[in-house]
Amino acid sequence: MSSTRLEITRPDDxxxxxxxxxxxxSVVADTARQFGRAIVMPNLKPPVAxxxxxxxxxxxxxxxxxxxxxxxxxxxxYLTEATTPDEIAxxxxxxxxxxxxxxxxxxTTNSQAGVRDLANVQGVLEAMEQHGLPLLMHGEVxxxxxxxxxxxxxxxxxxLLPLRERFPKLRMVLEHIxxxxxxEFVRAAPTHVGATITAHxxxxxxxxxxEGGIRPHHYCLPVLKRETHRTALVEAATSGDTHFFLGTxxxxxxxxxxxxxxxxxxxxxxxAAIELYAEAFEQAGRLxxxxxxxxxxxxxxxxxxxxxxxxxxxRKPWTVPDALPFGASxxxxxxxxxxxxxxxxxx
Length: 347
Ligand SMILES: NC(=O)N[C@@H](CC(=O)O)C(=O)O
Ligand SMILES: [Zn+2]
Ligand SMILES: [Zn+2]
Description:
The chain is of the alpha/beta class. The protein has helices spanning about 20-35, 50-65, 85-95, 120-130, 150-165, 180-190, 200-205, 225-235, 255-260, 275-285, 290-295, 295-300; strands at about 5-10, 15, 35-40, 70-80, 95-100, 135, 170-175, 195, 245, 310-315, 320, 325, 330, 340, 345.
C-alpha cells in the first residue's frame, strides 16, 4: 500500500522512560503530543517500588505536562525482593498502577534494586496472577558467561518457560523483544502473553552500532541484533497478530553519559516515535496495519478502552535536530541531524 496521508486512532506507548526532575520536564511533551497514554517505567533512582511512590511520580508527571494536554501516564511498580502481596492488592485497587516491572538485578539501567532470583518473589507473582496485574519483563539473563547477543533467548529458556508453567494465568509482557526466538515464543502463547516492539529494533540491525566507528547513540538494551532477527520483528509487528504492540522504550540519557568510556544504554525516540514506526511499516508495505499495532492491541491487552480521537500522518520528510534539551544538559535523539520520512500533520 502506498499512501501520503494516513489518519489513525491516537496511538499509545506501552513502554516508556520519562525520567524525573528537570529531565522529565524536557521530554514529557514529546510523548504527550502524539500518544494518548503511556506505560511509564519505574527505573528511577530510587525506584518506584510502592503505590505511594507511584502516586507521587504520577503527580510529578502530570505537573510537568504542557497545559491543555490530555495525556495519561499509566504507572508501574518496580518489583523488588521486598515487594509484598499486599502492595500488589493495593496497587491493583488504586486504578493508577497497571503493571509490575521485573528487572533481573544488573540487567539494564537502574536495575540494581531488581530481582536476583524469581524464587524470592513467588508470593508476589501469585498475587499478581490472582489480581490480573501484568508482569512486564526486561527479558535478559545477567549471567556474564552468556554472550550478550544470546541473553534474551537464554532468558526465555531459563526463566520464562518455567514461569509460564508455574503461573499459567499470569498476564505478562516480554518487553522490547529483539529476537526471532522471542517472536516465536510470544506468537505461540495465549493472548494474555504479549510483547512490545520498539521502532529502533524495527529499523536497525547490529551493524548500526559500529557503522564507521562506535556509535553510542545506537547502544541500547537488549542490544540490537542480526538482520534475521530484525526481519522477524518486522514480520511480527506488521502481521496483525494481537500479541504484539507498540512500546518505544524511548530512554533518554544526557549526551555526556552516552558519549563516554562506559556509556549508558538507551535510545531516545519519543521526539519522532509514530513517524519512525510509520517508516518501518511503509518499508514492509504494511502501512494499513500500523493503526492496530499502535492503537488497538495495547489497550485490548491491558483491558482499557481504545482512544477515540485520531492523529494524521503525512509522508513529508523533516530533519531531526542535532540535540534536544535534557534538564541541565542535552540529549542526542535518534536520527539526529538526519531525516525522518513521515511527519505529524495533525495531533
Ligand atoms: N533500554 C535501554 O537501553 N535502557 C533503559 C532501560 C531498559 O529498558 O532496559 C533505560 O532506562 O535507560
Ligand atoms: Zn528493559
Ligand atoms: Zn525500557
